[in-house]
Amino acid sequence: MTADDLDKAARSIASSLDLVGLAIKQHADRLRQDTQELQRALDIIFTVADAPRSKFVITGVGKSFLVGKKLAATMTSVGTRAVALHATEALHGDVGIIDSGDCVIALSYSGVTEEMVKLAKVLRDPQNRHDVWLIGMGRSVNSPLGELCDAWIDCSVETELSSVVCAPTISSSLMLALGDSIATLLMNRSKFGPSDFVRNHPSGNLGK
């Protein structure tokens, strides 16, 4: 490639970052105008965080599950009990890791993913005796998944980075940013400090 081509490619990356940042800024502005929906989710999250035996179970499939794994890892590292559970594995025996009083955070941008809706129905079935909270994160509370949840965290975006292929890009970045914000909020609320952080990081540069 020529120097000109490389410069254009680098500027394209910068433009993509602008789009991601703009989407997050626009979402923050919408939240400030109406916090009711997020308040419902936070009320549940605080209730579970304050319960000594309860934990957060972050679930999803595909790219959403990868976001969920990062969220669970961040929450755990800053003092909040959390595990990541792939929805497919949950439906094949691993749902047993979910205990009464836990909060399941279900990540699905479309809200129609078959495994996610099926898992939500399993958790909602009184015969299965899963007395848990269910919070969804995705595009629409009016989706099949959203209708099964106790609360919903909106992650809707106007577009992804590519107009050709709708691969999760801006939406997954927003979902991750919202998750990290919640993890940080819980950390600050619990007075989790530097010495606690070091105990959770006995190795690596962060633990120094």
From TrEMBL:
<feature type="domain" description="SIS">
    <location>
        <begin position="44"/>
        <end position="192"/>
    </location>
</feature>
<dbReference type="Pfam" id="PF01380">
    <property type="entry name" value="SIS"/>
</dbReference>
<dbReference type="GO" id="GO:0097367">
    <property type="term" value="F:carbohydrate derivative binding"/>
</dbReference>
<dbReference type="InterPro" id="IPR046348">
    <property type="entry name" value="SIS_dom_sf"/>
</dbReference>
<dbReference type="InterPro" id="IPR001347">
    <property type="entry name" value="SIS_dom"/>
</dbReference>
<dbReference type="InterPro" id="IPR035474">
    <property type="entry name" value="SIS_Kpsf"/>
</dbReference>
<protein>
    <recommendedName>
        <fullName>SIS domain-containing protein</fullName>
    </recommendedName>
</protein>
<dbReference type="GO" id="GO:1901135">
    <property type="term" value="P:carbohydrate derivative metabolic process"/>
</dbReference>
